[in-house]
């Protein structure tokens, strides 16, 4: 019988200060998230310097809470996993230095985790991964299709060439004067709408799995501008529904095509935008029809959290990957395979 | 009692270990390298050399700011995480006071200076004999600050790595009242930090935050906007 592995995860890449203890990379023992969203609302978006300041205020409290809820002492842990990148540099530095100091104080192994690997591994906290696997990572900072042939093997087969999907949602929400963060409001308006404006679908060249959302965003802005010049009132829900239809159709079609081409055994969605109702419904229906198992983690595991970092960090730890006291925050870190 | 001292407020990285009143080891580097890369390896290496294990530490002392926002956050994050992890007291000392300690025993005022761009500085005036603040830590237009310092009518010893930037202005305003510390006395020393920490009360670790001495630009703009709005 093998021994259980307990990993403490720490995540501070954007505006959530989070810590979690995960058992064997699959079972959440505790999961604590201190959100800063209320503080950033007044600025209409995340202010990096303010995010960093909040992380310093929260970091030890959040780690302590994660250990308390887990009922564990530091010496019962096997490793500390922390988000090394990508993200806001000042924000990453707080988590990385706290993780290093904690690991040093207790002489524990340290593992630096890629944030997107974390989002993907959030799914493993719900059910075991089956390979080959296709991950659709869709959030405020990312829109990627990642093919995995085994644990820690990441092949980015498609990504956004401009805005991330979540970024486009926030920008369109702002022009509709919806409060920050705008994504959920667009989703809700679209859901309630009785009509939709037709916006273009951006497919890029044939066969490409890449995405582009800045053109769609411009179409929405132009449409609103022209309507205003004509003195026309456009119901905002028609804009929201039209925009969402365009995003959802392209994302679903590309994910389905990739899943078929690579004959994957499982498709998983990850990232904050994966919580979007319109996208969930469309993806679920499309993969149901194809008979390909499709999973989306619950909302709390779609948005940023430290359980996902601990989950990915556990597999890295098992593969013998170790960070050093010289670990730095890496804002532009690339998703590399664990070899 | 074994104290670990950490000052990462500006470019210099200053760390030290003291056993009661004895300095075991002390290091100051003034290389423009990210503290996030260097601070923990330097601490680990220093403790190994001194044969001090993390569990042997009894107190953590940290320079709380002002200084580079990122710099003070790195030092404070390391210090509070170590203190909380090891369940030992955390002492915080003004980064300006740590610099002022370079001029200790000067008969007059000591003025630590950290450049903060656009003619401004993080600065203060400390009594050279007692190291008590005469004019508290602040972020100010440096010329205005010097004009105020002049009215006190005492000789002022300036210290800090950024002195070179402001030397001309200081001489212009204070003339013969201005004294300049020697180059080797312009960098923070973590042994000074520890000695000051030994005279201070411990802080509540969870609520320990850097002393930025300045709100963020976003908040300043937001406040301005709110003021401009009719309520
Ligand atoms: Zn994320």
Automatic annotation (TrEMBL), chain A:
Its cofactor is Fe(2+). Its main location: cytoplasm. Belongs to the KAE1 / TsaD family. Fe cation binds at residues 115, 119, 304. InterPro entries: ATPase_NBD, Gcp-like_dom, KAE1/TsaD, Peptidase_M22_CS, TsaD. GO terms for biological process: tRNA threonylcarbamoyladenosine modification. This is tRNA N6-adenosine threonylcarbamoyltransferase. Keywords: Acyltransferase, Cytoplasm, Iron, Metal-binding, Transferase, tRNA processing. Required for the formation of a threonylcarbamoyl group on adenosine at position 37 (t(6)A37) in tRNAs that read codons beginning with adenine. Is involved in the transfer of the threonylcarbamoyl moiety of threonylcarbamoyl-AMP (TC-AMP) to the N6 group of A37, together with TsaE and TsaB. TsaD likely plays a direct catalytic role in this reaction. GO terms for molecular function: iron ion binding; tRNA N(6)-L-threonylcarbamoyladenine synthase activity. The gene is tsaD. It comes from the Bacteria. Substrate binds at residues 137-141, 170, 183, 187, 276. Its EC number is 2.3.1.234. GO terms for cellular component: cytoplasm. Residues 27-310 form the Gcp-like domain. It is found in: Cytoplasm. Binds 1 Fe(2+) ion per subunit. It catalyses: L-threonylcarbamoyladenylate + adenosine(37) in tRNA = N(6)-L-threonylcarbamoyladenosine(37) in tRNA + AMP + H(+).
Automatic annotation (TrEMBL), chain B:
Residues 33-216 form the Gcp-like domain. GO terms for biological process: tRNA threonylcarbamoyladenosine modification. One of its GO terms (cellular component) is cytosol. Gene3D superfamilies: 3.30.420.40. Pfam families: TsaD (PF00814). InterPro entries: ATPase_NBD, Gcp-like_dom, T6A_TsaB. PANTHER family: TRNA N6-ADENOSINE THREONYLCARBAMOYLTRANSFERASE, TRNA THREONYLCARBAMOYLADENOSINE BIOSYNTHESIS PROTEIN TSAB. This is tRNA threonylcarbamoyladenosine biosynthesis protein TsaB. It comes from Planococcus koreensis.
